[in-house]
# Entry
Amino acid sequence: MRESSPPRASITAVAEIHHLTYGAMNPVVAYLIAFVGSLLGLVCTTRARAARHRRRRTRWLVLAAITIGGAAIWLMHFTAMFGFDVPDSPVRYSPSLTVASLVVAVVTVGAGLFIVGRGEATGGRIILGGLLTGAGAVAMHYTGMAAVRVAGRIEYDGALVGASTLIAVAGATAALWLVVAVRGWRAVIAGAFTLGIAVCGMHYTGMAAMRVRLWAPGETRVEGLSPSLLIVPITVLAAVTLIGVAFSALQAMTEEEFADDRWPASRAAGRSAPLDPHGRPWSVRAVRAIDGPSNSAGRSV
# Structure
């Protein structure tokens, strides 16, 4: 697992690497982002499994893929990467690979969520969904690391790369099991806590596997975007994504409540829905149709 270096560049010593340039701030903020993104995504997954129509279920699962893949994994990664530094080399990022890592995360995580979010909650589905969701986190991390440009060659320790993969897959599987098999708010929160730990653990284990071998001074030029230039677009993208997902989720919940032909209490008790005077299921729209605009005497026109 190596990045090729430019031709004729001679390798010198192994570079010193800093992962916590700003102290504990980066890992703490990164974990909070991973936890919140995981919580929103797992709530959406729970809503998807409760949905009775395919279109609603698909909408919830897409929202879950965006929040887990885009926020809990991708945004967490680059938040943590702001603390990454190589003192003897400039650090730059490839814009195309940075965007590609986001797409990889959302698509791969989405594939895992669609497996567990539909059909019977079997052990095989949970394991396969956890495998794909964890693989999405790993694929995003190493695609994002492929975007890193330094004045040297980046190498990885295979054993630690394997450990990071195991952490991601095990954590994702445990989180999905809590949500799908155990259920309830406590299970969702525990799943978000577990998935957040797994994503952060995978990231920092993968970073511990990293080595940078510097090229001789003056032989190469590092191209790409500096980390400072990424702060604003990533922050804006994160804010727009989370706000958009929140509004979309609220809209979906409202539509489901208005479209549902049963009151929640009746549904929970296993009773049929109350009927209007015409024998149809009672709904807000039925009330409006019955009442109509009132005249001055207080009777329907």
